[in-house]
Structure formats: C-alpha cells, structure tokens
Amino acid sequence: ISHSKGYGGGGGYLCNTEHLNTISIKWPYGQHEEERKGNDDGDVLEDLQPHSNLKLLEIKCYPGLRIPRWAIEDGLAASLPNLVKIILENCDGLKELPWLGKLQHLKTLKLLRLMNLEYMENKERGPDIGSSSDGAGITESSIFFPSLEELDLHKLPKLKGWWIGIRDGQRASSDGSAQTASVEHLPLFPRLSQVHIRICRNLRSIPLGPAVDTLMLFRSGIVEEEEDEKVVSSRSSNDCGNWRSDNPKIKEIRTDNVKFLKSLPMVAFQCLTTMEIGND
Asked: How many domains does the chain have?
C-alpha cells in the first residue's frame, strides 16, 4: 500500500482480510510538508488496522508522530498476535514504539533509520517488566521476545536504551533518584541468535540473551567512554555488564569497538570462530 496525495480514508477494510499474511505500507520518501498538507498520516495508519492473522508488517517513511490506537491499547500482542516479522524504516517522527515484547511469535525485528527514536519499549504502555517487592531492582518475572531470533538496529542516532527509565544499568526509583539494576536481572531474549547494531551512538547497553551466536556492533556507544575502563578492569573473567556469564555460544563477532571486546568475559570467546575488527 503506497500512501499518496488524495488518500480518501474510510478505514476498516483490512480488518476483514483474514488470509492476508503480509502488509507493506509506504509513504513517499522525503515528502515535504506542503505536499502532505491536508493528510493526517496518523489517521491513515489508524484506518489500515490489519487482521489479527497478519504475519509480516512493514512500514516505511511514515512521517507521523503518533502510534495508532490499535497498536497502543494492550499492545500489538493483542491486535496482531501472530506477527513473525516487523520492519520499520525511515519513520522519522516516532520517538518510541508500541509494546512489542510480548509478541509470542515474532522472530525478526528490523528498525532502520528511525532518526528520533529514543527508547524501544515504554514501560508505561506495556506489561510490568517486573520489580522486586522491596523495589531494589528489576527481576526476570516475564519472558520478553520469547521467539525473537534476529535483531537489526541501524542508524538510530537518538536511541538511549531499551526501556524508558532504564539506562546504563540504572532505573528511576519512585522518588526520581537513580537505582542500580543489574543487567543480568533484566528480561532477556531466550532465542535471540543474531544481533546487528550499527550507528547507534547514544545506546549505552543492550540486553544480550543466552543464545546469541552472531554479533555485529559498529559505531555504537556501548562500553565506549573512558570512565568505563575502571568498571571493565574491576570485573572478574566471568562477569560483564552486557553479557550473560552463562553464554558460551557466540561464534562470530564483527565490531569497531575494541573496548567492547575488552569488556567481554573470557567465557564469551570459547566457541568463537570468526572475529573482525575494523570499520563498518
């Protein structure tokens, strides 16, 4: 579906397409404000709510600022529970995404050139990621992205972290102060095997699951600043802020971030067959 000038709206017609597996919605790239005058891009997405059987959703060049209601209310797990693949590309207006973590069948998530995206998940709009009863930290009370196998993040220059309120291993307490939250207690991705992260300079940490075997990391802010060296030097060989100590499966690493490599525990290299250090 290519959105262009003169879209008449009406909506509701995709809700009955139960045999439609794939939807690709595209706006003209680089469309100027004058060309879009009179078109409410948010209403367009609102009208294009797919049937719950949909398996692949691709949205490109969406210039709107708001997420449609069918993606917010109860999250996509309620409206599109059968999604297997999501691609969002050149959607410059989006600062956050709908809640994706409870999609039971999602295997591939590609977020490409979302220039204003700041966080992947908004805790306020999704299920509680789990806090201990004494408020001391975050616990793994739920499995997030239970089927996700491939994560591709490309050119997200404002991305700060996965969850709003959690950055650099800290979360905001009820009084607004920062509290340490160990990354090992964050909900992890049990089947995530391929992680590609490029040009995400503000991203300071990533939750890596126990099954990651391929990691590409270029031009990111992960373990990059000088003060991190003190943290790295104090870690034991089996401890790393971004790495599960029980993860011996990684086979391929490609990165330009030597400090990230130095921050990994020795156990991370046990099955390594390919390492590339250089420019993307």
From this structure: 1
Give residue 235's identity as a one-letter amino acid code.
R
The set of long-range contacts for 3-10, using a CB threshold of 8 Å and a minimum separation of 24, is 3/27, 3/28, 3/39, 3/41, 3/44, 4/28, 5/35, 5/36, 5/39, 7/39, 7/44, 9/43, 9/44, 9/47, 10/47
Is 258 within 8 Å of 224 (Cβ atoms)? Answer: no
Residue 135 domain flag: yes
Instruction: Let me know if residue 242 belongs to a domain.
Output: no
Is 112 inside a domain boundary? yes
Q: How many residues does the chain have?
A: 280
Domain residues for the domain of 183 are 13-212
pTM assigned to the model:
0.78
Q: Rounded CA gap, 57 and 98, in Å?
A: 13
CA angle 52-25-158, nearest 5°? Answer: 100
Residues of the chain where predicted confidence (pLDDT) is lower than 50: 6-7, 34-38, 129-141, 167-185, 224-241, 245
Tokens encoding 64: 């709107």
Give the pLDDT score at 53. 94
Pair 160, 216: CB distance under 8 Å: no
**Which amino acid is present at 137?**
G
Q: For residue 62, is it within any domain?
A: yes
